[in-house]
């Protein structure tokens, strides 16, 4: 398995700086896609180009990796997936995703397990966590289906639109003990 | 420029690290409190740590104080993972076995009060790692921390072993600072020796 892989309906691949700007902007200009993080939607297409540059730099410095999830047939970008804040000493990282409104739960479950499998097997990380605003029904449902466990809620982690935001912590541990990984 | 003040509390004080503290730090790190933490053998690392403590304070990334009780070095208080714009930071105390819980709590209180007064921090975190003394939980709860989450296997203790982390938070009931324009007041920045603000203890010297 490599960084890029395909499922029945999706191509999951690293972003391409010169090509993905417009499609990424289409995804990230939708406030729903980032409401659980929370983060403001993008408003001008230059932000997507900047985001692509940032993703490349973070990948090069081994602190993060991002994938775009593209429909195999219509070539639409349905999601951006990422692992960030990779701590190579503690072997943990944070999962982050922005999902298009048209992407179904079944669609998410088609590619996320493979991506997590890659993160655990190839990168040999031990713990993947996601932090998100409380009461995000869809995201909590997906995380539960993916095997994540809710660990608690950290108070006052950031300020968004004038409100102090708590963040829930969900995590998934590598099912294979570290000593058994090749 | 001085960034780290000396702060007093009943029975002791915390003060900035100086170049002469290598032996004090070496002794503290012969008694690691955290599971998996190695005993330090190289004193040069500690000299570098003292240098870093000044740089970190100057750039608002962290702050370190030596904790003294009755004139004797008994621990180290560290502020790290400082997020100035989010008004939060994480706190840690490394103490010698002789450090009493009451002094540990008093030192934490003094440092938190300074960070809240000076830098408007209002959210402090503390991580208790499975394997540490249970009494430390009582200490941090006495300071006002509450457990917020148990992070499974979030701390690596050895090549293939991990420990859970109980993450505590203390969110102060303080108003957030109101943004102002540069020059709106006579605040001279983070240089505590220049500000000379009363009620924060005497000002010590950085290394």
Report low-confidence residues of chain B grouped into runs of 5 or more. Answer: 195-207
Oligomerization category of the chains in this entry: heterodimer
Number of helices of chain A: 5
The average pLDDT value of chain A, as a whole number, equals 96
| C-alpha Rg of chain B (nearest Å) | 17 Å
Helix content estimate of chain B: 25-40%
Structural class of chain A: alpha+beta
Spatial sequence of strands, sheet with the most strands of chain B: 1-2-3-4-5-6-8-7
Largest sheet of chain B: 8 strands, mixed
Helix content of chain A: 25-40%
Largest interface, C-beta within 8 A: A-B, 23 and 21 residues
Mean pLDDT rating of chain B: 89
- Strand line-up across the major sheet of chain A: 1-2-3-4-5-6-8-7
The rough form of chain B would be described as globular
Helix vs. strand class of chain B: alpha+beta
The overall strand count of chain A is 8
* N- and C-termini, Cα separation of chain A: 14 Å
Overall radius of gyration of chain A: 16 Å
Distance between the termini of chain B: 11 Å
Taking the sheet with the most strands of chain A, its summary is:
8 strands, mixed
Total strands of chain B:
8
Q: Please, could you describe this protein's structure?
A:
The complex is a heterodimer of chains A (182) and B (207). Chain A has helices at residues 21-28, 31-34, 45-60, 105-121, 137-145; strands at residues 5-6, 10-13, 65-71, 77-87, 92-99, 127-132, 149-160, 163-173. An eight-stranded mixed β-sheet of chain A has the order 1-2-3-4-5-6-8-7, sandwiched between helices. In chain A, helix 1 (21-28) packs across helix 3 (45-60). In chain A, strand 3 and strand 4 form a beta hairpin. Chain A has 182 residues and is α+β, with helices and mostly antiparallel strands. The mean pLDDT of chain A is 96. With 207 residues, chain B is α+β, with helices and mostly antiparallel strands. Chain B contains five helices and eight strands. Chain B has an eight-stranded mixed β-sheet with strand order 1-2-3-4-5-6-8-7, with helices on both faces. In chain B, strand 4 (72-83) and strand 5 form a beta hairpin. Chain B starts with 6 loop residues before the first strand and ends in a 12-residue tail after the last helix. The model of chain B is unreliable at 195-207 (pLDDT under 50). Classes of the chains: A alpha+beta (182), B alpha+beta (207).
């Amino acid at each position: 398995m490599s960084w890029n892989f395909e499922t029945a309906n999706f191509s999951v691949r690293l972003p391409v700086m010169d090509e993905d700007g417009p499609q990424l902007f289409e995804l990230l200009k939708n406030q729903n896609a980032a409401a659980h993080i929370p983060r403001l939607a993008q408003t001008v297409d230059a932000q997507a180009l900047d985001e692509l540059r940032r993703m490349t730099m973070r990948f090069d410095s081994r602190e993060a990796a991002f994938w775009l999830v593209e429909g195999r047939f219509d070539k639409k970008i349905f999601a951006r997936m990422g692992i960030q804040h990779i701590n190579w000493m503690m072997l943990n990282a944070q999962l982050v995703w922005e999902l298009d409104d048209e992407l179904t739960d079944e669609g998410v479950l088609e590619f996320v397990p493979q991506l997590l499998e890659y993160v655990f097997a190839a990168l040999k990380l031990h713990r993947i966590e996601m932090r998100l605003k409380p009461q995000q029904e869809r995201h909590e449902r997906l995380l539960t289906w993916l095997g994540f466990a809710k660990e608690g809620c950290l108070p006052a982690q950031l300020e968004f639109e004038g409100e102090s935001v708590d963040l829930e912590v969900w995590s998934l541990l590598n099912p294979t003990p570290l000593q058994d990984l090749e | 420029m001085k960034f780290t003040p000396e702060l007093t509390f009943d029975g002791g004080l915390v003060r900035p690290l100086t170049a002469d503290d290598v032996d004090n730090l070496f002794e503290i790190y012969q008694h690691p409190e955290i599971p998996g933490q190695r005993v330090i053998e190289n004193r040069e690392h500690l000299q570098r740590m003292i240098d870093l403590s000044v740089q970190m304070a100057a750039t608002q990334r962290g702050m370190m104080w030596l904790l003294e009780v009755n004139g004797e070095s008994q621990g180290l208080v560290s502020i790290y993972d400082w997020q100035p714009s989010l008004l939060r930071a994480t706190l840690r105390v490394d103490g010698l076995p002789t450090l009493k819980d009451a002094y540990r709590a008093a030192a934490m209180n003094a440092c938190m009060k300074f960070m809240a007064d000076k830098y408007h921090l209002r959210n402090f975190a503390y991580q208790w790692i499975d394997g540490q003394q249970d009494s430390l939980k009582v200490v941090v709860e006495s300071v006002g921390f509450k457990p917020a989450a148990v992070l499974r296997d979030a701390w690596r203790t050895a090549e293939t072993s991990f420990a859970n982390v109980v993450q505590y938070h203390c969110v102060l009931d303080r108003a957030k600072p109101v943004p102002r324009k540069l020059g709106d007041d006579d605040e001279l920045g983070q240089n505590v020796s220049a500000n000379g603000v009363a009620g924060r203890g005497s000002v010590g010297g950085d290394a």
